[in-house]
Amino acid sequence: xxxxxxxxxxxxxxxECVDVDKDYPELDKLIxxxxxxxxxxNGVGIAAPQVNRAVRIFVIDTEQIVEGFDEEDRKxxxxxxxxxxxxxxxxxxxxxxEPWAYNEGCLSIPKIREDINRPEHVRLKFVDENFVxxxxxxxxxxxxxxxxxxxxxxxxxxxxxxxPLKKRLLKKKLEDITKGKVRVDYRMLLPK
Length: 192
Hints:
This protein has 5 helices and 9 strands. The chain is an alpha+beta fold. The chain has a single domain (5-182), classed as Peptide Deformylase. It has a 5-stranded antiparallel sheet, with helices on both faces. A hairpin with a 5-residue loop joins strand 7 (121-127) and strand 8 (133-139). The longest helix is centred in the C-terminal third of the chain and has 15 residues, at 164-178. It is globular. The protein starts with a strand and ends with a strand.
């Protein structure tokens, strides 16, 4: 089922999310709905707070990004394979590498894109949808998408990395999102 995406300003987007266990109610359905919502909205990742659940779950599909690479992208990210994966109860073990800028957007903050600097590598501990434990290293675009979605489960948004002046310049656009004055092709859950 396609779920409404929580809009900027909704308090769930600022909550530090809690871990889940195998007994979390309808966990398989939530994960399936997150995948369906992510693809419907043309996202490459979505975190549980974006569908109004304050739990440490996110899904990403960077295979679709890699498939869409042009020649320049392939030169910049020659080893990028992309992944399609569910992350539950994730914790960052470390980040490293030179921070690099990339133009990010967010389903909860539609029509706003900004260059955000993030480290090129992330090591993550998590369990998958079968509650098998993993500790994996990710690089490049995949590391960036993971860090973006991970921020969601920690109550952070990509705009938090912007300098104060840039945030002030976006204030009106952000207010419009909060009030539902931005048109998107998916349902948004507005703050109350």
